[in-house]
Amino acid sequence: MPAKLPAATVRRLEKAARGAAKASYSPYSKFPVGAAILTGSGKIYTGCNVENASYGLTNCAERTAIFSAAALGEREVRAVAVYTPTPVPSSPCGACRQVINEFGPDALVICVCDGPGRIATTLDRLLPAAFGPKNLL
Q1: pTM for this entry
Q2: For domain 7-129, is the CATH number 3.40.140.10?
Q3: Which end of the chain offers a freer environment for a tag, N or C, measured as fewer CB atoms within 10 Å?
């Protein structure tokens, strides 16, 4: 695993992401996604995808979790777990990668699915040379 997190914490994140998918509002895609983030305070926040009839207004699970945490004052993301109901894991979309970068440029990203596969990497590998807060100084 690229970043050091206790195995029990990783398991909790994965379980929380799977559970969050159950709350998904995905009547159009029928693709329920769940995410769980570990913040700098040690708290775990979850999110699911929330679709909209105007597809461009849909919000991904990762961003839902991060925005929920940010609304409660969290400012650091240490890890993100994403669950997709697929036979192979799917990594976060570009928009989610950019939002993760805002709060966790070195975050561990774990992607799990219904199959045995998994992705465990860091955000800087998924979004190299990212534009972020440091570019605005």
Answers
A1: 0.95
A2: yes
A3: C
